[in-house]
Design goal:
Largest interface: A-B, 60 and 60 residues
Oligomer: homodimer
Structural class of chain A: mainly alpha
Number of helices of chain A: 6
Shape of chain A: elongated
Number of strands of chain A: 2
Strand order of the largest sheet of chain A: 1-2
CATH class of one domain in chain A: Mainly Alpha
Order of helices and strands of chain A: HHHEEHHH
Distance between the termini of chain A: 36 Å
Strand content of chain A: under 5%
CATH topology of one domain in chain A: Arc Repressor Mutant, subunit A
DNA sequence: CATATTGTAATGTTTGACATTACAACAATG
DNA sequence: CATTGTTGTAATGTCAAACATTACAATATG
């Protein structure tokens, strides 16, 4: 009943690549050490971010690199890239009774409102760019 | 990674009580038949809604009754009453490395934005009253 | 009191997320 | 061109949370 940690892991991953990309070879092991998860989890994350055109990953030699302007990547893009929510955010009970007037119409009555609520959340994510996060990160450094 | 179906079950439950309250004794079995879940699930739901002051349930003799103006109950109130989300909506990876400048600051950078997104969703739920849902339900009846 | 129903504890079942192991494909370097 | 370090990904394991179900005591009403 929560949104997957894949999302925060992916944001973390992008921030690590951005922060260390100039001075280090940013491998899945390197990122995994900062996020504190298994490197394979990071490889899967990298794979999603790559498919979304945000980064480039060198198989074999290793290392990830950002290839899209961070100003143009929003939290929503990352959220979508790693598939944070599969289908609707709300879990609807499966089989309302068609024999009951309420059961028969509950979807018609509720679905739209639930979709609106989900959209409101997602629109909020669209407001935040990765670039602004890197600025906030800078501001927090000692 | 989804919000509990307790929420949609609770909304469904209130609509059933409202729709049939005048003509039938609305027991947990009756509601369970419309929602299509085990009656115990409904009893737990009724328990939460009662604790929130929305309904009254008669132990022993049976039957639930709405005791709060539906105009003044929003989807958000129901969502809160049944505890649809425990803690934050987003699942954060547990142990970012304090040794890494990104790991050390990722919470400071992200937490606020995630809270804002969740709040946007919840504010949307606050806009919808149960009374308006009963009107939509009426409109959908044959 | 007999009956129907609620309240709730205890337990079982299932699903999904996340972790981990394993290894083939691959790219750079000496 | 063999070695080394890394990615890509499949297969499998582990665990927690949601939901279902059983069981029964407590309760109200005719």
């Amino acid at each position: 009943m929560k949104i997957t940690s894949r999302f925060t892991v992916a944001v973390h991953t992008l921030l690590v690549i951005h922060t260390f990309g100039k001075t280090e070879k940013v491998t899945s092991d390197f990122i995994a050490a900062s996020v504190n998860v298994n490197p394979v989890v990071i490889r899967r994350t990298l794979s999603s971010l790559k498919a979304a055109g945000m980064i480039d990953v060198k198989a074999g030699s290793g290392g990830a690199r950002i290839v899209k302007d961070l100003e143009s990547i929003t939290l929503y893009d990352v959220y979508k890239a790693v598939d944070s929510v599969d289908g609707g955010l709300f879990h609807f009970h499966e089989n309302p009774s068609p024999a009951c007037p309420v059961g028969r119409n509950i979807h018609a009555v509720l679905d739209g409102h639930l979709a609106d609520a989900q959209a409101a959340m997602e629109n909020e994510l669209k407001k935040i760019s990765l670039a602004s996060l890197t600025r906030e990160l800078q501001a927090n450094l000692p």
